[in-house]
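PROTEIN–LIGAND DATA SHEET

This sheet pairs a single protein chain with one bound small molecule, flavin-adenine dinucleotide, given as SMILES. Inputs appear in the order they were entered. The predicted three-dimensional arrangement of chain and ligand is reported afterwards as a token string under its own label.
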Amino acid sequence: MGNKKLRIAVVGGGIGGLTIAIALKQHGIDCKVYEQTAELREVGAAIALSANAMRFYDQWGLGPAFDAVGYEASALIYRDGKTGRVIGNHPAGEEYKQRYGARYIGIHRAELQKILFTEVGMENIYLNKRLSTIDDSGDCAVLNFEDGSSAEADFVIGADGVRSKVRELMLGYDDYLYAGYSAFRAIVPIESLPSLPDPSAIQFWMGDGCHLLHYPIGGDRTGDVNFFLVQRDPTPWPHKEWVTPAEDGEQLKYFGDWHPAVVEMLSSAKVDTRWAMNYRMMLGRWSKGRMTLMGDAAHSIVPHHGQGANQSIEDAVVLADCIADMGKGTLSDMQNRYEYLRRGRARKVVYASVTTGDMLHLPPGESRDLRDARLASKEAMANHLDWIHGFDASNFAEPNEKQGGTWM
Ligand SMILES: Cc1cc2nc3c(=O)[nH]c(=O)nc-3n(C[C@H](O)[C@H](O)[C@H](O)COP(=O)(O)OP(=O)(O)OC[C@H]3O[C@@H](n4cnc5c(N)ncnc54)[C@H](O)[C@@H]3O)c2cc1C
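PREDICTION REPORTED AS:
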């Protein structure tokens, strides 16, 4: 069956699901996006998009939409959490763009989704469609939704995130694991942060078993600051729910004696929830029958490299290219090619995200001193970032040294 005739159902209208719909549209291929929520709106959180993802939004002509609502970070700075001492300071902005070919921006998730669904077209997005089962035993896949409706498709893309139903249906069980970290996150107006040094930078404040990451968002150059606070606690996670109500001031438990700018930031926000950081093991296969996974559904990741959404966008570009190149080949050949091109890269980024968490949380001692020396070094920093941010997922025909050498 030719790709133009393929009826494609995308489950999940998040970052990856909307991006693959745009990537397919670039090839003149239609799809239908089924999203469980009544509205495409993620409240109260932001995201950092790096050049390995932003290059595609630029190529697709969406750059000006990002200009209006994205904040281009001026630098990437690492500090000691308690003293505020600068450990590493690496320019972003123009130098970053020159090196990696696109911008590094902070953006509110709701703004990102708005750009994406406007481009996809609401006529292609079906809201209030929470997938419950898929029957893949007949001539096509039948998707059944909780509202009692159903839809047919020749190919089902599971872009339904870290709590993926498609993955659960493929495996036959829910396989999430607690990563041993919990997090608080909030957005603070910049006016509330008079003590913050370098407010236009992406900054990591590091300590023993915990860290704070923040970056500016918003396109008006005054911006807000999005923060994300991680602690290796509690272990194990004592709740059934992934997100629980936070006690008043709970976010200061580990950070009360940190640098005044950190305490000021954490005290300026209303933080009412605490998030368990969960992940899933990498699978040997991302496809079964007519179903294929992408994004967090395929390779959910701890967020210490800020790459979950960026990897989802890379998946979308490659999967759309594989569908477009399918010609008269079989669905299974196309699925194999997509997995072959993506699994090795995603595995490396997942592993790097875990080790980055360890690196950020080192206690005082020789290892921390060595880490600090590495974070101060331009060359070591390039080794840490080049292979991720400089990667061009669409250039998969000829993997090369700069892109990490090998795919698998
Ligand atoms: C605190 C935190 C900070 C992060 N910061 C960054 C960052 O700075 N940069 C970065 O790249 N990544 C970051 N990430 C990771 C990033 O959020 C995810 O990796 C990314 O959203 C994954 O995209 P996705 O499309 O796979 O899934 P999602 O964006 O989660 O989308 C999944 C969609 O599927 C829908 N859905 C789920 N189940 C069903 C169902 N049964 N039926 C229909 N629809 C369904 C959901 O409603 C949702 O809209 C962060 C994550 C966390 C938790």
